[in-house]
Amino acid sequence: MTVPDLTHRETRALELMDDPDCDLVALERTYRHFALVNGVVAGWRRVYRRRIRPLLEASPDGRLTVLDIGSGAGDVPRALADRARRDGYHLDILAVDPDPRAHAFATAERRSPVPGAAPGRDATLAFDRTTSRALVDEGRRFDLVLSNHVLHHLDPVDLGDLLDDSARLATTLVLHNDIERSRLAYLLYAAATLLPFRGSFIRHDGLLSIRRSYRVDELRREVPAGWKVEGQFPFRLLLTRTGTPETDLEAAAEAAAAQGAGGAAAHPGGTDA
Ligand SMILES: C[S@@+](CC[C@H](N)C(=O)[O-])C[C@H]1O[C@@H](n2cnc3c(N)ncnc32)[C@H](O)[C@@H]1O
């Protein structure tokens, strides 16, 4: 097997699932495989233990509102809600994705929203076919805003918009979890996906995702002040930011108003943060 040059990010080749005209049967199969692949590679168990559970412990009623941006098949928010429920806490999660195919899959009736949860009591999980920008425009706020495997899909403008949106939407914490590009990650993923996952995009898109993903130092150069990039073992990176309290948003809005419509207003997700 030839290993491509991984010195630089691949930014031109697009993943098969991002093609609106891709094979729908293979796409559904890919969505179905996401739970297994994310469960093995994405490291949410540790992120939950180190970043989310402490917030739940600190919350007076043991509850948090959560936004998952780019939720795809919905397996990550479902697993987080279930994990919190088993710890005796409550996550009230909104999972959004503008892709109609992802939304249809995530909301198909045969998948229970949160396994074992009494609806509306132990955990709640809702899906909406929308974007982070639309939620900003609606003035929505969440304690915690997160994403999985979204950063490497985006061009620089969309990445900037996502960071701006997530900083505005979160009152407490933003967690963007993604792959860190490496030759070893590529070789291991290629070996692990050689035989299983036939008829789905898991192998092709996963290998391309590794090629499209950042190294820690590259992502640090891309993000505005206020964001922190940490490598996570193995082959992961976590981009985090403390949220924007209501008072800061009000101050930013007042500054924007004072500068007038044409002024370059300080905003929570921008370089002024
Ligand atoms: C590879 S999928 C990741 C799906 C899922 N999080 C996972 O890890 O399996 C990336 C998704 O992000 C969505 N997306 C990208 N930018 C977004 C935004 N600003 N708001 C909401 N969804 C977005 C895309 O539609 C796409 O379905």
Keywords, please?
273 residues; alpha/beta; Rossmann fold; seven-stranded mixed beta sheet; 10 helices; globular; binds S-adenosylmethionine
Explain what the structure shows:
42% of the residues lie in helices and 18% in strands. With 273 residues, it is of the alpha/beta class. The protein has a single domain (19-259), classed as 3-Layer(aba) Sandwich (Rossmann fold), CATH 3.40.50. Strands 3-2-1-4-5-7-6 form a seven-stranded mixed sheet, with helices on both faces. α3 links the parallel β1 and β2. The longest helix has 18 residues, at 24-41. It is globular, with a radius of gyration of 19 Å. Residues 269-273 have low confidence and may be disordered.
Blueprint of the fold:
Elements: H1 24-41, H2 44-58, E1 63-69, H3 75-86, E2 90-96, H4 100-107, E3 124-128, H5 132-137, E4 142-148, H6 156-169, E5 170-179, H7 183-192, H8 202-212, H9 216-222, E6 228-232, E7 236-242, H10 246-259
Parallel strand pairs: 1-2, 1-4, 2-3, 4-5
Antiparallel strand pairs: 5-7, 6-7
This protein binds S-adenosylmethionine.
The site of S-adenosylmethionine (SAM) has 20 residues, from helix 1.
